[in-house]
Amino acid sequence: MKSVVAALRGLPPADLVHTIANFDNREIAQIIAALGSDLAARAFGYFEPSQQVEIARAMPRAQLQQLFTDMPHDERADLWKSLPEAERDALLPGLAHADREDIRRLASYAEGTAGSIMTSDYATLAPELPARLAIEVLRREAPDRETIYTSYVLDEQRRLVGVVSLRDLLLAPDDARVADIMIRDGIFVRVGDSKEVVAEKIAEYDLLAIPVINGGDAMVGIVTVDDALDVAEMVQARRLTQFGGTAALGGPDIDLMNSTFWEMFKARYIWLALLTAFGMISSIFVAAQEEILTEVLILAAFIAPIIDMGGNTGSQSATLVIRAMALDQVRNVWSDVFKVLKRDLPVAAALGIGVALLEVVLAAIFKDGIIPEVFWIVGISILVVTIAGSLFGVTIPFLARQLRIDPATLSAPLITSVMDLLGVFIYFGIAYIFLADVLNAAA
Length: 443
Known about the structure:
Blueprint (H helix, E strand, L loop, with lengths): L1 H8 L3 H8 L4 H11 L1 H8 L4 H10 L2 H10 L2 H10 L2 H7 L5 H11 L6 H4 L6 E2 L5 H11 L8 E5 L5 E6 H6 L6 H4 L7 E2 L4 H10 L4 E5 L5 E6 H19 L17 H27 L2 H6 L7 H24 L7 H33 L5 H31 L9 H23 L1 H7 L1
Parallel strand pairs: 1-2, 4-5
Antiparallel strand pairs: 2-3, 5-6
């Protein structure tokens, strides 16, 4: 064990955790205890949340209390909330009063808010402090602070009056007051703001951390850029699963390795049931076209490629619009809908013409005895369905934003299924127009 621990101490915390993550949790608990409190506290946050709980439950109480004392404040609050209530109650008495109160306060904020991801571990300065003394204060506090690159200037009521960077303090004259160096009217978020808003502000203003204030305008914490990146990754993962049709509508995120059987079943079943309903409507409509299919059976051969074209085009267009929204290239206004359509519809029309010509040529080569009307039906149907797919795919994300729904929840399978249904309506509608004489003669 000693040789293993010695080798692990030379690794960065993330690599250390990656090396031992598949060990038995009791063995990991022993290794964590042997690493030393500082390294253990820095490494522990790299374990998956569910594994953190199992490791914590395998640790002796005294070692777990030491870990809680040394962990970053936001991470220990998250871990404390995940522990069973009996273990939480047994853990707290062994912690310092300030640590107990800090954990309870951070754990009290609603999930998904700035308060739930912030840390109370930040550097503060008084506005009247000279730069020389401010640097001394930061030097003393640095070992116990998450970051000292930015310090927050608070008045006597802990209201945020400005921010000052370590660089500005170092470059300032020794006797310059913090109030004369700091930046006033800095960027901040409210404790109840969503964590997505926090991540967006940190990215927009290129911040290392952002202060969090409560309803009384008192500063209560900061959210650091690494936590914001975690939020951004989570949002992107959620959008990917939603757009793929594997996330619960309005429910929790689905994790392949950590979600329960029923969570995964419910999330996927809702989508599959919805898509099956659309599929059944399409099938019933196609089955009702017995008259025209009996007279011109070859029409059945082109149903699949025509409806696929609409679904694929709609999904492509929706993906491009959602990406543009994420990059703030388009705003949530209807004027931008027409701007996007002006760009996308000509492309869709060109794609429709190109694919229609290809489909007609391939049909002429590989299928004999096709009457000319069928070529026209297939070609025009592909063109119309492609344009309709583009129109649908562009419009739906804007409509979702108007309804305050994440556009990513309008999954690619859903867009495809709607376009399948619309595609068969378009296809057989055009077929009835071109084959009216054939059907009248048969009658």
